[in-house]
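User: Can you model how adenosine-5'-triphosphate sits in this protein?
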Amino acid sequence: MRFRRLRLSGFKSFVEPAELRIEPGLTGVVGPNGCGKSNLLEAIRWVMGESSPKSMRGGGMEDVIFAGTAQRPPRDFAEVVLVAETAAREELEVVRRIERGAGSAYRVNGRDVRAKDVALVFADAATGAHSPALVSQGRIAAVIAAKPAERRMMLEEAAGIAGLHVRRKDAEQKLRATEANLARLEDLMAGLD
Ligand code: ATP
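Assistant: Here's the modeled complex, given as structure tokens:
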């Protein structure tokens, strides 16, 4: 999967709609302190389903919405659109929007989906909100200091098998529900004898 474009509106310091083209190859973001470099990386993580406000440097998820300045009123919503090209060369458009008091909503190619569906789309393409391909400040030191279990997670994401864990959890839940149904059926059958 290749990321092509990133559109932000009301996200952190990007109060006005902004669109960036992401060219093939390695992308670095440079600029003066506080200009919003880390916010851009966070926008990519966020649209891919980041669920921890702490890793977005906020106390709650609504903190990603433009909070206002002395000159500008705060916004009611934040929206990030990521346009990517899949391995099959199809265009993929993922939208995440958060409104004050209403939480996050996701769309993939115009269709409303759950956060879990978005996570799977990216996990299957060996990327995601925690992808080691997104190198933020301090990340290199974190990789060096990572515990073996954390390193294993990084390797699994890079190998594209992280999505299998999500599916295994789903399958285990279904299996438990089916076992419970079977036990109930046996009870009922015993009652009929
Ligand atoms: P540095 O080089 O110092 O790490 P940076 O270029 O990575 O900086 P960011 O940390 O991405 O900059 O951006 C910080 C700016 O974003 C600050 O000016 C901060 O006030 C602003 N900001 C963060 N969240 C919001 C928000 N919800 N509303 C408005 N502005 C915000």
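A couple of observations from the model: The mean pLDDT is 90. Strands lie at 2-9, 18-21, 77-85, 91-99, 103-108, 111-113.
User: Helpful, thanks.
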